[in-house]
Design a protein that fits this description.
- This protein has 524 residues and is mainly α.
- The protein has three domains: 6-238, no CATH class; 239-321 and 461-524, no CATH class; 328-441, no CATH class.
- It is built from 21 helices and no strands.
- The protein is globular, with a radius of gyration of 24 Å.
- 38% of the residues are buried.
């Protein structure tokens, strides 16, 4: 169920009606969110709902265990029935194919409660670490199996063949559950924050389950922290007209970026990347630029729509993009691009590895490892690992050159600083574009074709097409920069505000790509 579909529009209208009727009943409103979120996610493939249910139950229990609390007998029975009966309901439509899951799930439930009882008798520090280990193990095992099993199996088979060993390929017909990387990181951060004593566990399973499956940001983020979003499920949401108005604007702007800009640039990039050997130098450059703006508008468009939908329901979720292509350095880029992932990697991986606390060389190692794993998070393919390594490398180079420190303390005249900023931004944009080439290309041969094929700024009419679609984006981001806010609409004169809104609506009506495309980050 895509945000840019009529089915979702009908779904959201029906949901909003019942949500409004329950505005004075918090528990029932959260239960409605949980049911609607499961319907929303199950629209793709209802079988994978069991994975969210397992993650939800596991981290709810381990969160309590880390804090030396345990569920009551009534809660324990309820959680077990939630998993088992949920699995039965999910298996009804394809019983012959999926009924086998009930036995291992039953064993998982029994083994889980036996393990829980044993861990609760451990010494405090050991108990906390043990429950954290269970949470991380279950989360990463599910993510690793569904997302990376075939990748590592194929890579091992190819490596063995390189040494002359004959290894039979082991490949399973595994479908990647949509959004699994996002909700896995979100639920892991909940238990880690409790372990670090930055958060108290919630005692309401419905609140926790609705937080973890909240449909506006379930399948492509932002990756919300429990410290920020979970408390919003514990209090009545008072929705004002300002929430609805600003939320609708975010949905409109995100929808424009997705269906007008990203979906119209996608065919240009796809066609040239599919057969780069016959493309001219100008067309190769166009393909890189098209994908650079396609992935930005596609992903940031989803994030804007998620924020807008959440705001109309009385929630405030984090900003995930902050005009990233004006960045002057790699570190600034990652403070502006996919902020929820970059801060997650910083707080839970980079800091855990030691961060910058143990000298320069270990700092560089930690940066490289963090970005390599960040690249692998995006997908089970070597081009994503290569992209992550490239991002780590330029972070290290800029850190070696102390560029960020120099920018912070420079005291040259403003005109010189202005020129320096332009040059640094242009350089960084070229580095970003090269990174997207590594991200988009699926073979070293394709990368080589682009590198040696782009040798001149040969004109092609496709340049005009790209400029046509991205001009409104650039113009609006200039307004955002001028007003120093990502939501400047309220500060604009009413005449200008009305014309911007009419322009967006007309663009959606007359310029939307026919057919539409799935959001890029649904694949991650």
């Amino acid at each position: 169920m895509l945000f840019n579909s009529y089915i979702f529009l009908i779904f959201f209208i029906i949901f909003a009606i019942f949500y409004g009727l329950l505005r004075r009943h918090l528990w029932w409103q959260n239960l409605l969110i949980l049911i609607a979120s499961y319907i929303f996610y199950g629209w793709w493939d209802e079988r994978f709902l069991i994975l969210i249910m397992i993650s939800t139950t596991t981290d709810y229990i381990t969160g309590l265990g880390v804090a030396n609390e345990k569920p009551t007998v009534r809660q324990g029975v309820g959680l077990s029935l939630f998993l088992f009966l949920g699995a039965v309901l999910l298996c009804l439509r394809t019983w012959n194919e999926t009924a086998w899951i009930l036995l291992p799930l039953s064993l998982f439930i029994v083994a889980g409660w036996l393990l829980h009882g044993r861990l609760m008798h451990l010494e405090d520090n050991l108990r906390r670490k043990a429950f954290l280990a269970v949470s991380i193990t279950v989360g990463l095992s599910i993510l690793g199996f569904f997302k990376y099993f075939n990748f590592f199996a194929d890579s091992f088979q190819q490596m063995a063949s390189g040494f002359g060993w004959q290894v039979d390929p082991i490949t399973l017909n595994i479908i990647l559950p949509v959004g699994i990387s996002f909700y896995t990181f979100q639920t892991m951060s909940y238990t880690i924050d409790i372990y670090r004593r930055e958060l108290q566990p919630t005692h309401s399973f419905i609140h926790f389950a609705s937080f973890l499956s909240f449909f506006p940001q379930l399948v492509a983020g932002p990756i919300e922290r429990a410290t920020h979003l979970l408390p919003q499920f514990s209090k009545l949401r008072i929705i004002h007209w300002d929430n609805i108005y600003s939320g609708l604007w975010l949905v409109l702007w995100g929808l424009y970026k997705k269906v007008v800009i990203a979906d119209n640039l996608a065919p240009i990039a796809d066609k040239i990347f599919m057969n780069p050997d016959v493309a001219t130098s100008g067309e190769l450059l166009v393909a890189v630029l098209a994908f650079t703006f396609q992935i930005y508008c596609d992903f940031s468009g989803y994030s804007d729509m998620a924020r807008g939908l959440a705001r109309m329901l009385g929630f405030e979720i984090m900003v995930n993009f902050n005009i990233p292509y004006i960045a002057k350095t790699p570190s600034e880029f990652w403070r502006r691009w996919h902020i929820s992932l970059s801060t997650w990697l910083r707080d839970y991986l980079y800091v855990s590895l030691g961060g910058n606390r143990y000298g320069a060389w270990l700092t560089y190692r930690n940066l490289m490892l963090t970005m390599l794993l960040g690249g692998l998070w995006h997908g089970a393919a070597w081009n994503f690992v290569l992209w992550g390594g490239y991002q780590g490398l330029i972070l290290v180079i800029y850190r070696l050159l102390h560029v960020d420190e120099w920018l912070a303390r420079r005291n040259s005249p403003l005109i010189i600083q202005y020129v320096q900023n332009i040059l640094l931004t242009c350089l960084m944009f070229m580095l970003i574009c090269f990174g997207w080439l590594l991200f988009r290309a699926h073979s070293l041969a394709t990368i080589e074709t682009f590198i040696f094929g782009i040798h001149s700024l040969q004109y092609t009419p496709l340049f005009a097409t790209i400029i046509f679609y991205i001009f409104p984006l650039v113009a609006f981001e200039m307004i955002q920069l001028s007003y120093r806010t990502l939501e400047p609409l309220a500060q604009l004169p009413s005449f200008i505000r009305l014309n911007i809104q009419l322009f967006m609506l007309c663009g959606l009506v007359f310029l939307s790509s026919k057919g539409g495309q799935q959001f890029i980050y649904f694949n991650f």
